[in-house]
Amino acid sequence: MKPAHAEQPLNAPMPARVLVVDDEPRLLTSLCSLLRSQEYSVTEAADGHGACQLIDSQTFDLAMLDLRMPGIDGFDVMRHIASRQPDCGVVVVSGESSFDAVSRALRRGALDYIRKPFDPDELLATVESVLEKRALLRAHEHIRGRLEKSEALHRYIVNSSPDIVFMLDGDGHFCFVNSKVECMLGYHPQELRGRHFRHIIDDRDVARGTYALNAPNISADNPRTLEVRLKTRGSRRANRYFEITAFPIDPETWPQAGADEHGKHREARYYGTARDVTERKEAEAFINFQAYHDLLTRLPNRALFKDRLELAITHARRENQKLAVMFLDLDRFKVINDTLGHAMGDRLLQAVTHRLERCLRKGDTLSRFGGDEFTLLLPSIHSHEDARMIAKKLIKALRNPFQLGDHEVFVGVSIGISIFPEAGENMDHLIQNADIAMYHVKARGKDGYRFYSASMSIDSANRLILERDLRLALEREELRVFYQPQVCAATNQVVGLEALVRWQHPVRGLLYPRDFLPLAEETRLITQVSEWVMNQAFQDVGHWIRSGQQDLRLAVNLSPIQVEHPKFVETLMKQLRASHFPPRNLEIEITENLIMNDLEQISQKLRELADFGIRIAIDDFGTGYSSLNYIHRLPIHTLKVDQSFVKAIRSGEEGACIVNAIIAMAHGLRLEIIAEGVETTEQLTYLKRLGCHQIQGFIHGAAQPAEAIENCLGHLPAKAAML
Fold first, then answer.
1. Where are the beta strands (DSSP E) in 210-341?
2. Which pLDDT band, with edges at 50, 70 and 90, does 390 fall under?
3. Does residue 608 have a pLDDT over 80?
4. R_g of the chain, CA atoms, integer Å
């Protein structure tokens, strides 16, 4: 047998705790024994005062009270129980049977009323029934509490979610949306309930959102995921990108309905989340922009340009239309970049881009191809004239100076144009041929445009071979310096020699400057060629000067690339010192266009040279700007009349009038004047009559190598060599 005090199993329910209160000891003992026989935990109280003390110190599930007790009666005990232990049930066991007493007890919260004397079975049945009801009530309260906590937890989780959580009815109206929508988009959740989801979707994405919701294959296992832009409340906040994931809801598993602001019930049919992916989309857009744009100018880069050109060619071929590709190369950009630094060069590229963009039509694509090179796509043109008009606008747009800090600089642009389909039927050919046409512009003086023609490709092939040979010529010393005399018109004495370069090609024979100098300019070999020519001329003419021809002047043509270089003056002076050539015997020849391209910088360099005693001559005068302003401001000593005007010296021709004006102007400014290309006695006589100081041309002999010039000078008296 188990001992009387044996413990109950851990999972056994605790016996109900019953307080029995009665002032009749016999009845109290009888009732307590009956209840204990049913294994209730019974506590007895002989009066109301003792009952109240027990209620203050212990917890009970049920109190069985007698109403009529001295001092504190049963009604007072019921009141005390209600204030201290409201969960404790009360059953009245009393001899008072009046309606008023029963009614009063029930109003005070008694669950049942048993009259004395009681039937034991009836009493036990009542106790059991009341305890079961109390247990059910407590269980219900416990479950309700747990549900409230669970609901609060889920509400907290949903509202604390980093995403917008929503539910829609079958038509797409909001049944529920969490509070995250307010901080992300500015809408109050209650404001959206009952409204259609299109209310917050960007108009451009409404169709996609509607289609996704109605897709036939959407299911719980195959939710619909899409990215859309959602509107933010108010115009000051930009729309944001969201990744929407939506699941259909089975009505059998979600029978609840939500009511909108009009009280209409809407059954939820879709559950979903909206995650803000704006930062990711912006990062993707930036990465994509970097991949297809030049970050300095914000223009499309080479890859994007080729993509658009490929599409434009496909469209033009299908519609039987023309399109144009332009290749643009800035003139003098490298000099400005080297002189002012890369930061200023970058600012110049941005300023150039801004001007070029203002010349374009809607649908044109301007790209930065690399360095100072740009490409331009003109789709759907009607004729060459359309491209010609745009090219002229681009050239004109860059004519005005650019202000870079304290510096005013000038750039031009050389433009090559290829037209589809004549100049190429695919992307590579169009770009390549536009590039070839651009180099022909460079070779003819820059700052212009040319359309590609088939003959240019032949020249291009020859140029590749010629470029290779020219590089070898510099290594093998195949270049030669020839000298053409400059003769005093009054005395017929040789006063100067112009150094002219020739190339003794091993296969092609003797090549003249027109055959290879444009290529040298294009390939940047002109600097090496010019330096070699000057070094050789300094040696030859310096030897003649030291041999007795102290006043003999050497005239050399300088390339724009040389003069524009920031260290031009320093480099030239080093050459003079290295060869011991006297600066006063040197005259450099530059063109008007070179001066006007950057008047401020060139003026400074010319003044520095003049301070060293070097003379300055303007070559081909009359073919460029011919501005009296710059002639007056610069340290210029000599004007050389271009041979095209000299050839036109015939009675009544315009060229003669120009020669008259140039010589008269030179006399007025006290400048020396040299006429180039004089070939006939008629020209010589005319020039002498006008007072031209010096003559240069075939009438006094062609350019000759140093040996021939030395032989002539050797038979003449010093300081007055006669040809």
1. 224-230, 240-248, 257-259, 265-276, 322-331
2. very high
3. yes
4. 54
Looking at the chain, the domain(s) classified CATH 3.30.450.20 span: 161-250+262-283
Reported for 438-441, long-range contacts at CB under 8 A and 24+ positions apart, including other chains, are: 438/327, 438/328, 438/329, 438/414, 439/463, 439/522, 440/416, 441/414, 441/415, 441/416
The CA-atom distances, in angstroms, between 159 and each of 176, 254, 259, 342, 680 are 11, 20, 19, 54, 102
Cα–Cα distance for residue pair 335/565, rounded to 1 Å? 6
> What residues does CATH 3.20.20.450 cover in the chain?
465-714
Paired tokens of 332:
């003098």
pLDDT at 650 over 80: no
Domain 294-452 belongs in CATH node 3.30.70.270? yes
The DSSP bridge partners found for residue 555 are: 498, 587
pLDDT tens digits for 504-527?
Answer: 999 889 998 888 887 787 777 888
Looking at the domain that runs over 17-140, which CATH code has it been given? Answer: 3.40.50.2300
Across-strand partners of 258? 266
Where helices occur in 186-261 by DSSP H, the ranges are: 189-192, 206-213
Strands in 360-492 per DSSP E? 365-370, 373-381, 402-404, 407-409, 412-420, 449-451, 479-488
**Per CATH, is 465-714 categorized as 3.20.20.450?**
yes
The answer to whether residue 571 scores a pLDDT higher than 50 is yes
Neighbouring CB atoms inside 10 A of 366's CB total 21
Give 541's pLDDT tier (boundaries 50, 70, 90).
very high
pLDDT above 50 for 99: yes
> CATH 3.30.70.270 region(s) of the chain?
294-452
Q: Which two tokens stand for residue 261?
A: 């602001």
| pTM, two decimal places | 0.48
Q: In what order do the strands lie in the sheet with 365-370?
A: 365-370, 373-381, 322-331, 412-420, 449-451
Within 117-262, strands assigned E span 164-169, 174-177, 224-230, 240-248, 257-259
Structure tokens at 656: 């003669």
Residues of the chain with CATH 3.40.50.2300: 17-140
Q: Which residue has the higher pLDDT, 91 or 599?
A: 91
- ∠ CA 12-13-18, nearest 5°, is 140
Q: Check residue 299 and give its pLDDT.
A: 93
Q: How far apart are CA 541 and CA 428, in angstroms?
A: 50
pLDDT at 236 over 70: no
| Percentage of the chain lying above the pLDDT 90 cut | 29
| Residues 527 and 470 sit within 8 Å (Cβ to Cβ) | no
Among 456, 413, 463, 462, residue whose Cα is nearest residue 434 = 456
Which has the higher per-residue pLDDT, 510 or 643?
510
Report the SS3 class of residue 452: coil
Q: Cα–Cα distance between 594 and 592 in angstroms, integer?
A: 5
Q: Which positions ≥6 away from 134 have C-beta within 8 Å?
A: 61, 62, 87, 89, 111
Q: Which among 43, 41, 50 has a CA at the least distance from the CA of 74?
A: 50
Look at 259 and 615; give whichever has higher pLDDT: 615
* Higher-pLDDT residue of 577, 102: 577
CATH match of 161-250+262-283 with 3.30.450.20 = yes
User: Residue 482: its pLDDT value, please?
Assistant: 95
| Beta strands at 322-331 and 164-169: parallel, antiparallel or unpaired | unpaired
